[in-house]
Amino acid sequence: MTTQLLTRAGPRPRPELFLAEGLGIATGRVHEAAGPARRSFALMLAGRTEGPVLWIAPSWAAERLHPEGARAFLDPGRLLFATPLRAEDLLWTMEEALRAGLVPVVVADLPDPPSLTPVRRLQLAAEAGAGAARDAGLPAPLGLILTPGEGGAAGVESRWHMAPRHRADETAWRIERRRARNAPPHGWTLRHRRGGLVVEG
Questions:
Q1: In 37-153, at which residue ranges do the beta strands (DSSP E only) sit?
Q2: What is the per-residue pLDDT across 77-97, written as a single tens digit (0 to 9) for each?
Q3: Burial of 182 by CB count in 10 Å (0-12 exposed, 13-18 middle, 19+ buried)?
Q4: Which domains does the chain have, with CATH numbers?
Q5: pLDDT tens readout for residues 58-82
Q6: Residue 196 pairs with which residues in a beta bridge?
Q7: What is the pTM of this model?
Q8: Residue 35, C-beta contacts closer than 8 angstroms, at least 6 positions apart
Q9: Is there a contact between 190 and 175 (Cβ–Cβ < 8 Å)?
Q10: Dihedral through CA 196, CA 53, CA 136, CA 130, nearest 10?
Q11: 188 with 23: CB under 8 angstroms?
């Protein structure tokens, strides 16, 4: 009697961080968010976790995240800010934070989309950080690159676009998954209700 050496079982699905029911994003990987509400998207995701959130932005950036403005999504006391002086240190800081696996969400608010090679380094760091986090009994880190305009970073696990759709009587956003390795493009309307976020679409 012989035993098979190989099986047809596919790879195990990655753990996901759910923004709302049916709307998840894989942890242990690096993703991109673009659009005018990209920072709100990052804060919403961070609000679904516990512990510190590392927010990396250039020291020369004219716009800064206002902690009180973040209060609608999470306790602003959870935010740790890093403001490197050199452009090359933005992604280096993100890489080191992801590799450590101690921070559940690492955000890099970038002036331009990064090229493929540094994003590949970030993906390797996120995978290493997921292993370190698992050994420490912590959730795998999630890396999120925020880019202006329509985005376009190569090598990301998924690319998202978020824009406000607010009305006088309602707070809402349109969120689109424009690219993902294991899921088709799709769009949702995200509404903020008293009980939390509600997804439609």
A1: 53-56, 79-82, 105-109, 142-146
A2: 999 999 999 999 999 999 999
A3: exposed
A4: 24-200 (3.40.50.300)
A5: 999 988 898 888 998 999 999 999 9
A6: 193
A7: 0.90
A8: 41, 150, 151, 160, 161, 162, 163
A9: yes
A10: 90
A11: yes
